[in-house]
Amino acid sequence: MYLTDSNEMKKKLTIIYNEVCKGLFGAGTTLLKIEIADQFITFRTKHRRTPQSLALECEVPALKREVDFQMSQIFKKRIKEFLEQEFDLKIEVILRDYDYATQWSVTEVILAEN
After folding, report:
1. Per-residue pLDDT of the chain (114 residues; tens, 9 = 90+)
2. How far is CA 80 from CA 16, 49, 54, 65, 103, in A?
3. DSSP assignment, residue 3?
4. What are phi and psi of 3, to 5 degrees?
5. Alpha-carbon distance 80 to 109, whole Å?
6. Quick one: DSSP state of residue 112?
């Protein structure tokens, strides 16, 4: 099953994405753009910097990068669970790249072919 590229669908996806972010990071995004095409859902986002993140970045930058990586893995797992449950989707893979210096991320959801 693929999703339709409609404003209503993008609103639902925005809510889900921000719920996952708030649950993991304590804050939603400052910018969120969504594209839906065939079996692909792309989220381009700018995130808020948390006080904990700033402290780690200043004091222990290597640990900050490791925490960012691990949180990204948890994020992918949670967003997959939410999307599969909410929309009854079969997801093949979720790819995510996050740049800790600028707080930009791109998350690509690739749906399994029917």
Report:
1. 678 888 999 999 999 999 999 999 888 899 999 999 989 999 999 988 777 777 887 788 888 888 888 989 999 999 999 999 999 999 999 999 988 778 899 999 999 986
2. 10, 23, 28, 23, 21
3. -
4. -95, 155
5. 8
6. P
Q: Is 76 strand, coil or helix?
A: helix
Which of 22, 44, 26, 46 shows the shortest CA–CA distance to 35? 44
> Tokens standing for 113?
């072919």
Kindly state the tokens that stand for 91.
């997801």
For 63, the 3-state DSSP assignment is helix
CA distance 93 to 18: 20
Q: In the block, which residue shows the tokens 């939603």? A: 28
